[in-house]
């Protein structure tokens, strides 16, 4: 077999890293293309085919040209792996394009002795859509100035790739900032809702929640800071509100400059969120999508316990607990082979269930993830959701590197920053390199800690005097 493959060329599938081209299997093709009300252009190809490989960057350019449009989607299927699908549509040569969901049968791109190209495919799509009274709502490019090499460089060149990666990491950094801000707010306000001191069942729930955070909260340096908070928490068997708030204030001061980003646990406000609940959802999605030593079932039960004991909206808490009994979570996440993806999808669907109940739009919007839905608009109906695309979206948006050293940022030659845990970082932007906190930076937190200490000390002395007099 090896000599044959050497003769025919590379057998690796195409488009696996494409953002705007969905790679289908025999299972996902029908569920995605045939169930959609939106037109799909599908490239039927064979990896060994030199013409397929020559056409691949043209097809990527076409898909990227229509990238902002929700009127047409693009996919591809490897006929060497999924032959029955290709046979169903009479694919007699490669590459072959079909336009689905315009009429009952897929429309073939006419054969031409000239190779398929960016211009011929865009022209065919526009002419076919116009003929069928449909529109892509995308203006035709200037073919006279279009050069595939220039287009490939703009899309795939080192600078563009670095910029794209930087923007993605910066977006995750801002989500993480908002998640951490909500987490710290919950530390400061939620642990003592209607009950003081923190003892017994609520103490155990707080301890379990902190333990989960030390294992699943994104990035090793942040886990270290949370582990320090857990260590201090476990130094007492119970906590009063004043004692705990003093501890949190001191911990925030100590963590500044040692977390990623360095102000992660000390920011005074949100970056993108406007509400506490928005930040909580970002936190929960990050815990679900990130890797860690806690099994998916442990993450789900930990989230459930947090909502049960420390989430202030009574009606929200009741709905969440009713919708997620422990028995349901055990069934959903009991299979180790599927539990990781099932955890991410469970929180995704739970999030949209809440959105529908409170009158918020389904998330993410169709424009943000157009392949996430089989319908023309975002839908919370599970049958309308393309779960494979949702998993890809959630992973890109919320899964963080396992260690700080994996935060891959473009930097100048020999520019290596050291992280808070001593690992080498490849760069810094939203993810600042570790720098020691200056007195000016930590002064507000020291002031808060001092105030709490004075108040706590006065109360202790007052209690001692009263007890002595009595």
TrEMBL record:
Requisite cofactors: FAD
GO CC terms, sorted: extracellular space; Golgi membrane
Family matches, as PROSITE patterns: ERV_ALR, THIOREDOXIN_1, THIOREDOXIN_2
Catalytic activity: 2 R'C(R)SH + O2 = R'C(R)S-S(R)CR' + H2O2
GO MF: flavin-dependent sulfhydryl oxidase activity; protein disulfide isomerase activity
Alphabetical list of PANTHER family matching this protein: QUIESCIN Q6-RELATED SULFHYDRYL OXIDASE (PTHR22897), SULFHYDRYL OXIDASE (PTHR22897:SF8)
Domain (Thioredoxin) ranges: 6-130
One of the GO biological process terms: protein folding
Name the record gives this protein: Sulfhydryl oxidase
InterPro entries attached to this UniProt entry: ERV/ALR_sulphydryl_oxid_sf, ERV/ALR_sulphydryl_oxidase, Sulfhydryl_oxidase, Thioredoxin-like_sf, Thioredoxin_CS, Thioredoxin_domain
Transmembrane segments: 438-456
Enzyme Commission number: 1.8.3.2
Alphabetic keyword roster: Disulfide bond, FAD, Flavoprotein, Glycoprotein, Membrane, Oxidoreductase, Signal, Transmembrane, Transmembrane helix
Record domain ERV/ALR sulfhydryl oxidase: where: 266-373
């Amino acid at each position: 077999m090896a000599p044959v493959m050497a003769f025919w060329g590379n057998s690796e599938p195409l488009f696996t890293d494409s953002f705007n081209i969905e790679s289908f299997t025999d299972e996902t093709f029908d569920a995605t293309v045939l169930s959609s009300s939106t037109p799909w252009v599908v490239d039927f190809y064979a990896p060994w085919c030199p013409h397929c490989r020559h056409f691949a960057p043209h097809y990527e350019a076409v898909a990227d040209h229509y990238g902002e449009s929700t009127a047409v989607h693009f996919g591809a299927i490897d006929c060497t792996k999924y032959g029955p699908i290709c046979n169903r549509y009479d694919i007699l040569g490669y590459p072959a394009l079909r336009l689905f969901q315009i009429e009952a049968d897929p429309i073939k791109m006419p054969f031409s002795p000239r190779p398929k190209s960016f211009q011929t495919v865009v022209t065919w799509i526009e002419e076919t859509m116009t003929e069928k009274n449909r529109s892509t709502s995308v203006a035709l490019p200037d073919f006279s100035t279009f050069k595939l090499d220039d287009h490939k460089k703009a899309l795939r060149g080192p600078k563009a790739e670095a910029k794209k990666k930087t923007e993605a990491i910066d977006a995750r950094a801002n989500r993480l900032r908002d998640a951490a801000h909500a987490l710290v707010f919950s530390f400061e306000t939620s642990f003592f809702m209607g009950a003081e001191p923190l003892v017994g069942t609520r103490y155990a729930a707080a301890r379990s929640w902190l333990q989960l955070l030390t294992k699943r909260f994104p990035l090793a340096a942040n886990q270290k800071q949370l582990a320090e908070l857990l260590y201090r928490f476990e130094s007492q068997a119970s906590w009063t509100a004043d004692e705990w708030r003093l501890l949190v204030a001191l911990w925030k001061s100590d963590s500044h400059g040692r977390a990623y980003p360095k102000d992660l646990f000390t920011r005074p406000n949100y970056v993108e969120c406007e509400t506490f609940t928005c930040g909580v959802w970002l936190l929960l999605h990050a815990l679900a999508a990130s890797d860690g030593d806690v099994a998916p079932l442990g993450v789900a039960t930990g989230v459930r316990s947090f909502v049960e004991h420390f989430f202030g909206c009574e009606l929200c808490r009741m709905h969440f607990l009713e919708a997620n009994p422990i028995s349901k979570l055990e069934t959903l996440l009991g299979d180790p082979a599927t539990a990781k993806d099932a955890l991410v999808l469970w929180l995704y669907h739970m999030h949209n269930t809440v959105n529908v109940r409170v009158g918020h739009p389904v998330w993410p919007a169709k424009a943000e993830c157009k392949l996430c839905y089989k319908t023309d608009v975002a839908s919370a109906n599970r049958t309308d959701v393309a779960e494979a695309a949702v998993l890809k979206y959630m992973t890109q948006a919320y899964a963080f590197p396992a260690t700080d050293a994996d935060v891959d940022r473009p930097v100048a030659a020999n520019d290596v920053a050291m992280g808070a845990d001593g690992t080498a970082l490849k760069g810094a932007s939203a993810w600042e390199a570790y720098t020691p906190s200056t007195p000016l930076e930590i002064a507000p937190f020291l002031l808060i800690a001092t105030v709490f200490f004075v108040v706590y000390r006065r109360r202790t002395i007052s209690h001692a005097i009263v007890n002595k007099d009595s």
